[in-house]
Amino acid sequence: MRGSGTDQGPPPFRPQRKMALAAAPLRRFPTAPRRPPPSPVSQRYARLRPPHSRRRSPLLLAAAAAAPLTAADTEGRKHELLRAVQETLRGSAASSDQRAAIEEAIVCVEELGAGEGAPLDLAALDGTWRLCYTSASDVLMLFEAAEKLPLLQVGQIYQKFECKDRSDGGVIRNVVRWSIQNLLEEQEGATLMVSAKFDVLSKRNIFLQFEEVAVENIKISEQLQAQIAPAILPRSFLSLQILQFLRTFRAQVPLSGPERRSPGGLYYLSYLDRDMLLGRSVGGGGVFVFTRAQPLL
Question: What is the distance between the alpha carbons of residues 269 and 277, in angstroms, rounded to a whole number?
Fold first, then answer.
């Protein structure tokens, strides 16, 4: 129906009033300052430290570092070292991982520092020491030769120090027991001995000057004795002479002389107590682990 007045359109759009709560400014509550993120270096060392050490206070750590080691601690470290070398066949069968673990165990014993700061106790060094482990190439060559030559056997290896009543040096004898299967007694059919003089250079360093290599103490096997002088037959004068010659045989080669200088080397005795000796060949890169043995006959 048409009106008489002007047309009225739709009412204009009027926005509603916003709620007072929404229009009010947001209140910001004070918060604690953010800590800076740890540096990559600190994170790395935190992962390397065992969990119990991360919780210790600096005072406790300082007290633990200053606490003296007990006799049980010393024997424990030595036991761990001997346990680590036990399955390595004196070093000839050690893997790279085993060598790394053994090196760590050696350092732990060396840190005990028995006699550190005091002159080398030659009276304690005097005697016979049995080789338990080495990484020296010249000794490992003997074990490798025994593996390649089925008849060759390498027995015990010793270092014998003769320096009881000395203060400046003495004599050292490297003794290797060896044998040839079916010809000599097993493991100890013969003896290879390398003798050297040594001088004390410092509290832990000695200098070796090699003098002689000798083969002695030949002990033939029962099978060979039976071939030379059968038990069922009377032994002749010749067979007895042969047996006596073999028992007393000694071949020696001098390493020094008036026209040649004997070979030498520097030897660092890193640890010494009543029943363990650790040494390092300076320049040769080899380590040695010895334990006290009975005197050689």
Answer: 7
Contact (CB, 8 A) for 253 and 212: yes
DSSP 248-297: H--EEEES-BTTBPPPEEEEEEEEE-SSEEEEEEETTTEEEEEEE-PPP-
Q: Cβ(207)–Cβ(267) under 8 Å? A: yes
Instruction: Look up residue 107 and give its two tokens.
Output: 């350092």
Measure the CA–CA gap between 154 and 24, rounded to whole angstroms: 94
Identify whether the C-beta of residue 277 lies closer than 8 Å to the C-beta of residue 265. Answer: no
pLDDT in tens, 230-282: 755 566 677 777 778 777 888 989 887 777 777 888 999 999 999 999 999 98
CA distances from 47 to 50, 53, 97, 101, 189 (A): 7, 11, 22, 20, 55
List C-alpha distances in Å: 85 to 82, 89, 178: 5, 8, 22
The per-residue pLDDT for range 184-203, each reduced to its tens digit, is 998 889 999 999 999 999 88
- For residues 168 and 206, what is the distance between their CA atoms, to the nearest angstrom? 9
> How buried is residue 293: exposed, middle or buried, by Cβ count under 10 Å (0-12/13-18/19+)?
middle
